[in-house]
User: What shape does this take?
Amino acid sequence: MPDAIPLWPTPQQPENPTLTPYLLPGERTRAMLVILPGGGYEVRVDHEKLNIVRWVNSLGLHAAICDYRVKPARHPAPLHDAQRALRLIRHHAAEWHVDPGRIGVIGFSAGGHLAGSVGNFGDDGNTTSPDLVARQSGRADAVIACYAVISGLMRSGSFKNLLGPDPDAELVQRLSLETSVTARNPPTFLWSTAADPVVSVEHSLRYASALHAKGIPFALHVYPKGGHGMALAPEDAAVSDWTGRCANWLAELGWR
Assistant: This one.
């Protein structure tokens, strides 16, 4: 088991977020995906961690798990943690044999919202910071959002955990990701099920429409049946199809 690396040079509250890299052997420079598990911004569920690592590694990509801060931490802590994970990887890119121009995020449910937030709110780093990690870009080069929460305008419980019980309306609007896509968003892969009883497929549809309006390349796959939190969906032959489609999409990007 690899060691978890603290994301920040000083301890954070209420917990210390970490990045755990799972690097493939050898000196070949590879793309890398950072895994953002779901859990409603209240927990980080285990079934969207190591099994996703194994799948990502099987594609010939490096992987890492980002254990970002959750409730009682509020926005912007999770976003800053995810961006810091990308900066930390770029800081270690030569040592870890990672291509700094092929670092993406894959998120599930609330982790999908976090992945999309990284896509929407990426930045190029602070080139004058004394912290060498902070000088690195916090942008994702690809986003994979699985049955993602997107919009706080649809009464999402995740947003209550992220922003508190009485959030500012303008902040809810900004973090409803369909309202804040820019021309610099990276290519994005989305999948959901039309029958998801927890996070409506409407979230993914809204985000896909916003990406299309800005001319951002995206793929969207909606499966007619299936619940929430299916991860790799190993027990559902139809929904597990997403992994092959995503692998092909990554190949089209030149990541495999």
Notes: Helices lie at 50-58, 77-91, 93-96, 110-120, 157-163, 169-175, 202-213, 241-252. The first strand starts at residue 5 and ends at 6. The beta strands are 5-6, 18-22, 30-36, 62-67, 98-108, 143-146, 188-193, 218-223.
